[in-house]
## 1
Amino acid sequence: MASTHQRQAPEEHEHRGLFARKSTEQLLADTENQDGLRRAVGALDMTALGVGAIIGTGIFVIIGEAIGVSGPAIILSFVLAGLTCLFSALSYAELASSIPVSGSAYTYGYATLGELAAWIIGWDLLLEYGVSVAAVAVGWGGYLQDLLQSLLSIHLPDAIAGPPGDGGTVNLPAVVLIAGVSALLIVGVKESARTNTVMVITKLGILVFFIIAGAFSIKSSNYTPFAPHGTSGTVDAAALIFFAYIGFDAISTSGEEAKNPGRDLPRSIVGSLLIATLVYILVAIVAVGLASETQLSQSDAPLTTAIRQAGLGSWAGDLLSLGALIAITSVVLTVLYGQTRITYSMARDGLLPRFLGKLTPRGTPLWGCIVFGALAAGMAAFLPLSEIAKLVNIGTLFAFLIVNLGVIVLRRTQSGLERPFRVPLVPVVPLIGAALCVYLMSRQPGITWLRFGVWMAIGLVVYALYGRRHSRVASGRGVRSL
């Protein structure tokens, strides 16, 4: 695939040490390793990967908490969060088509800002993806509980159905979900992608049912007052439900497994975001019209609560609970997939232990799936959803910020690089995307910033003690096959 891109100057790395940049030529050459990842994913599966990663806990669970912050103005909150993502999605699309390599923002940071910046963003992505997997798995338990209670009159004991802080001791359903998904990812990327595509089509169908069926029972009085908590509440809700949009960036981690990355990656990234945004807005309009702010904000399964107000019988609520289970399963699958590909890239570069990038005969990172699946399962078992979601938001916004800046830097440093997709009006559009990210980051609570700062400080220590010493790029050793 590297042959379809204009080759840059033959030097492998422009600098040594902390600011060593990995040339785009070397990045593309890495993908030609016959023992590496396999190009087996088409445009439909990649778009489904994006939609699968986006539509999940954010719309099925966190929408309830967000409505408690914004009221009916949650509709505008979704628009604001989606607009923020659109600017960043355009930047992701350009970099993904120009540098079709696994690693997402980590790889782009290596090519544009140097190794230290790449490590920082890579460490941030490990947090974003790992904690995101845990967060969506926690939300899975609430809908499972609702479905078991409704269909089989089975009530899971609180001690094993939720984490400490949410009335339980350990969230066993979340652990089982992550373990099952990790096993599927080890089996193979093609099998994982096809399974995800089926789940995405199913959950979109169920959400379309919610929109159409609920539209006939909307109460106009539920929309007034429209913004009871003012503009501040609307913006704060946008910062919270930003979690609902996380996922389209997972497509960029499949750069080395896309059959036609220059064409399909940009289409899949932007297309999945637009599909999800439209669905979100329509679902928010119907949900607010069906149930009161209090009913939605206090429910662990808000969409199920909303559809039961439509008078369709318990089967409609059960269908929404089933849709939520499928949706959240696909999110866990796609986000954990993305994390293992970032880990693979970092291990290949020597910044993480090499065993994390070792591939099975089927081309899947075995130990990456096992280690990070276990870590995510541990967090899901013992941490409450609301706090996890906030930490994911700030990590994602930071990643988006780097990607927007990376487009500007790469345009200046490698103007001759072939770009199948180009962001319009550079640097204006990326700068707007960066500014929106900074603004939403500023709306995060102080405790979230503190936790994020602690994680990044730990990352710098790990880099100093391990990553810098083993880096193949900074040392000038190049990158060898894992």
## 2
Amino acid sequence: MSKRQNQYYLLSLGCAKNTVDSESMAQLLDQAGMRGVGDPRSAEVLIVNTCGFIGPAKTESINALQELANLKSSDQYLIAAGCLSQRYGDTLAQEVQGLDGIIGTRRWMDIVDVVQRLRKRKHPEPLYHLPTDAVTVGTDERGAARVSVQGASAYLKISDGCRRPCAFCAIPKIKGTLVSRPMQAILDEARMLRDQGVQEIILIAQDSTDYGSDWGMKNGLAQLLNEMVKAVPDLPWIRIMYAYPGYVTDELIETMATHQQIVNYLDIPLQHADRRTLLRMRRPANVDWVYSTLTKMREAMPDLTIRTTFIVGYPGETDEEFENLVQFVKDIQFDRVGTFTYSYEIGTPSATLPDQVDDEVKQARQDHLMAVQQKISLQRNQSQVGRILDVLIEGHAAVTDEDGNPTGSTISLGRSYRDAPEIDGYVMVEGEAPIGEIVPVRITGAMLYDLVGTVDLAGPTIIQPGQIFGAGDLNPD
């Protein structure tokens, strides 16, 4: 028997939602008696859970697959999984020479079956496993938890797929329509994570605010949150990601404001702020709703942190439309903003739109918008100086001088409620605070994206209405 037998190497690319799928596949492989290894040369089965959302992600995935294909021996199997496989499965083997198996996003739970079929195959052609069935919940999950634990935090997937018609997005083609997971399964996994010592659960989905709508539920996310705080009353933080504009209801706002466990943080990708652009994007185009809803949220939660993302250079975006977006960012004063240039995606409605924007214009607009946001971000961070924030400590780092030489001092790296993992900033804390624990930190300094502070055992600051500035209070010019 080969030393590689029953060992697998799994590389996960892309977003946190992909990471959860990777962890679920790993659970099933482990249950089948296989063992994960960190060196692809030691594995019988090589798996890349790919991302195919935009052009750069596709390139990264293909490069990773080809690198492993060039490395593998005759007794190893290379499997392409995930979004790229689902989207380009029929042609992927032509781009990557050496693929043995291709499994799509909608049947990740069949990974063990695919491995077993590869072991029995008697022909050199790739094995395709790309069913169109998007039912991925309940017993079909084969008992795999839909979670990914990252230190003291964990992502918990509450649904899969999306039914939104956004013209630039291929996710519905890749993932299929919305399929919500049973509430009881989600609550059981929340309890399991709590029992493992997890301090923060991050609820993720393609559209978290659509949870339960496929069953006819109204305010499904609010209902889920209310049940979750009952199920895990001693879990410190619950965070919501990927809210959809127009579906942040009064009930959701009330639920967030009522329960201290649900951190005052909302990720709501708006994509643009000019009505004409939004209509071409097939996105909610009621910009007045955004102004009124975010104002309502800030009134209910004065220390609310708001993250959003925008696409610049969308087909037909004029100078005026872009300037309206810039003014919108100045008006709202977001805490966190991600800006992306439009990516041409074959097969999406936006790919056929006229008036494609030149790459140089896209880049200039991205640079300008981020320069505006950086001023806002710095001032938002500066308003935190003097506060005491609860900070989840994630690691330690040695302090170096300007020449890169160690000074002998150590800092702790952590996140406050204002920071989601991987995409937001850090709080850098003097000394070595305990990893995996939430400690009170007095904020003493602010940078563009990060904060600096010291451990303060006096406890968190209570924020009263009006203490944290809201929309319109800053002029970044």
## 3
Amino acid sequence: MRIQALLLAAAVAVAQKPVEFEQRQGLQLDSGKAELTVLTRGGAFVSMTLNEDAEKLNPMWNPVRAARETGGPQRFGDSIGHFVCVDGFGPISKEEAAAGLQGHGEAHRQPWEIVSQGKLEVQFQAKLPLLHEMFRRKLQMVEGEQVVYVDSELENLLAFDRPANWAEHGTIGSPFLATERTVVDASVGQCQTRPHNGQPPRRLASEKEFQYPNAPLLHGSLVNLRAVPANPGSMDHTGCLMDPAREHVFVTALRVDKKLLFGYLFRRAEYPWLQEWMNYQKDGALARGLEFGTQPFDVSRRQTVEMGKLFGVPAFRWLPAKSKITTRFLMFLTRVPDGFTKVDDVRLSGGVLTIEDKAAGRTVKLAASLGL
């Protein structure tokens, strides 16, 4: 038994290398095509790079790096990369604050226990003591693929049904996110700008419906949201309904000049909303949330319940008593061919992920053998 345990420990050490990212502990998975770094406290995905990329350009938002390079403050605490907001997405009530709860839920602030490890696979769990929930997540990669498979489960430890707020706070940042060179596409339908009072500096009008990507500006005209504006200095927020005609929906970010595409494919039934948080600071600290989840805006639990629905679609998901709800999504990173400037479709069939720019007649195909 001792020999078997030593062999298992040695295999795990080879497959998953402990790393440090911005003075935070994590693990690194390497499929031979792509590397993923995930933190062991909070479970954030903080780096994904292609092995063949000499520049190692990482799409994930790193506010620590941004503050270091711009000389500005590091204002986002535990928030970094792609982190999960469970259970809660947005501000809290005064009663919740008095009870010790913080914004964006508990999961991304808790230590994540490693339950099991295998070759290119790790399973975590995190107890949420204030919310009386248990969150579990399994990450998988496959040798030779550029896709990460993410399975999650949220368990209600209480004996009553409750409204759950769950968002995958996927966020891209500079240097991958660059003015007029990074574009975002998504399979969305109706959208609405988040209600606001003009602060901080806004480009977009408050609480106005629109069709992505053309959103209403404060002065009445429209602006195409796909790219970061040439002159940053604003922060805006939109909520879009994922295309109700699709079973699987997508959001992607393309750094056109680098020919590097990052994206997600997920089940619309589990994540019906896409929020985009566009934080474009004048000093070049750029961040853009590609936040798919159960609600259209980052508002309190009480507000989502009072909202009920937007565009006829619920603004929260029920977590039944003593029960579990689950989700699954894919995350991918790839090069694109010359002339590829826009993602019109991402679909999965027969273990192949197909990404299309229809106008340019360009297609990328990635192996995705574990499916969705």
